Amino acid sequence: MSERVIEAFGLAKTYGAGAQRVDALRPTDFRVDRGEFVMVAGPSGSGKSTLLAMISGLLTPTAGTVRVLGRDIGGLSRDAFDRLRLEHFGFVFQGFHLLPALTAIEQVGIVLERQGIQREAARRRAAATLTRVGLGARLDNKPSELSGGEKQRVVIARALAKQPQIIFADEPTSALDSVNGREITRLLRAAALEEGASVVCVTHDPRLIEHATRLVRMEDGAVLAD
Ligand code: ADP
Fold first, then answer.
1. Mutation probe of ligand 1 site: the residue of 13, 15, 55, 62 with most atoms within 8 A of C-beta
2. Which CATH code for domain 33-57+87-225?
3. FRET partner for 174 with CA separation of 20 to 30 A, picked from 14, 18, 47, 121?
């Protein structure tokens, strides 16, 4: 039987009020099982990022509940949620969020150290993960010395190295050419199919859709098809 990793009921988000009111997400049920690679696709403004931000706890819903790994995240203390996120979530967002002063191996290593892994072990695992995403020769390079595709691979390695149960990706390929975009998608798919992570990926890039194990189509703040 499949294991439910994310389960949201009646999830909704409204921004603003009165004439400025935007129903970014109308009441929506959403679930993700272990090992799924779920692609959430739809035009810009359809509510994809809003949905992702709420199921990953980055944004408070206007209505509805979100259970992640069996816990109602709306009911967790800040500390408890931060621990859940640190231990079990990996994020791959557009725009990289890499620290300019750190080399690739340090970017990945500090996340592992924050989880309590000893420095040497963290470095070894960081190097192994970077090698796996094709950056074995780039361990000691800083972001300014890397191409866009390489930077996004560092971001992927940073998310994968901690072997998270869930990976949240928002437009992970939008800044990349098709070759790099395909490679990033392949890595996300492998995390799901080979390592049993659940991957939720928001995109408006139709080239990525065929790689998903499940496709959720959104329009105007609602799920059209699943
Ligand atoms: P998508 O990810 O599909 O492009 P979003 O979830 O970003 O869509 O946005 C859904 C709708 O909510 C859009 O109409 C957008 O303009 C609006 N929206 C998103 N974030 C905010 C915000 N912080 N304040 C007001 N409106 C927002």
1. 15
2. 3.40.50.300
3. 14
